[in-house]
Amino acid sequence: MKNFKGCTAVITGGAAGIGFAVARRLGEEGANVVIADIEADALDRAATTLDNAGIPVEAVVTDVAQRDQIVALADAATSRFGDIHFLHNNAGVTTAGLAEELTDAQWDWVMGVNLNSVIWGCREFLPRMKAHGQPAHIVNTASMAGMSGGPLMAPYFASKFAVVGLSEGLWHEAKVNQSNVGVSVLCPAFVRTGIARSDRNQPDGMGGWILQGSDQASRYGEFLTAGVDGGIEPAEVAGKVLEAVIDERLWILTHPESGQSVLNRAEAIAGSGIPAEVRRPNN
Ligand SMILES: NC(=O)c1ccc[n+]([C@@H]2O[C@H](COP(=O)([O-])OP(=O)(O)OC[C@H]3O[C@@H](n4cnc5c(N)ncnc54)[C@H](O)[C@@H]3O)[C@@H](O)[C@H]2O)c1
Question: Is the residue at 208 inside a domain?
């Protein structure tokens, strides 16, 4: 896609954070915008803000972890604006806790919102975008946590690595078939958003995003919250997303140090086999 004027863009997790920033930026560039989110009040406020800015907007309350709701979102977007040109699979949540101590429900929640939704979004929207044949693009939000692992967020790492793999696969399929639909994967480091309050959208009874009764998880939660609060602004990320789409780039890194961290990991894999971050002297 070389410009967004008159195109229709669907953004999940569009009520807040990175999703809302991308929606606003696309709207400012002349797109019709469909924002989807599980948080109805926040979605309402986001739609009002976009509407007040003169952006044509449709808000669709959606739980992206439910496949039928992804289909309903695609139908709602089509019935309001016609052909869809841009999809940002962006909604995401996290937990903090040891892999074996987190419950099955917590694992399922993260994998459902962060990964299944992206699989379903691509599989539902891609045929529609191919059918109209106009320039189109899918952006999937992964994370730098999809590029290298660490402790206490195993479901998040697993889901984000998978989103990276899925996006890379789709990118190759698009090139092989000279598709009209480009693919990018967004891998942010810390961005100042509500991600460290993910439990505001958790199904009832799951007990929060930080594993209860674990000091280690609690400390990690504090570290993560501080990192997010000190992160870059979502609007900066939105600018990088639009640039990458126009340039037809697969990878979207948001922080200057991210490239080196990818290199460090690759070097560790090819060299010692020990992740660079936990290597000790004499290892
Ligand atoms: N903020 C960061 O530091 C950071 C870093 C790397 C990756 N990311 C990723 O960026 C994406 C956006 O997150 P953010 O940082 O803007 O956080 P955020 O919490 O501000 O926004 C996430 C949005 O997703 C929505 N959401 C949650 N569960 C949902 C569901 N089941 N169905 C529909 N919507 C749902 C939330 O209501 C919220 O509006 C996520 O995929 C996250 O993993 C964030």
Answer: yes
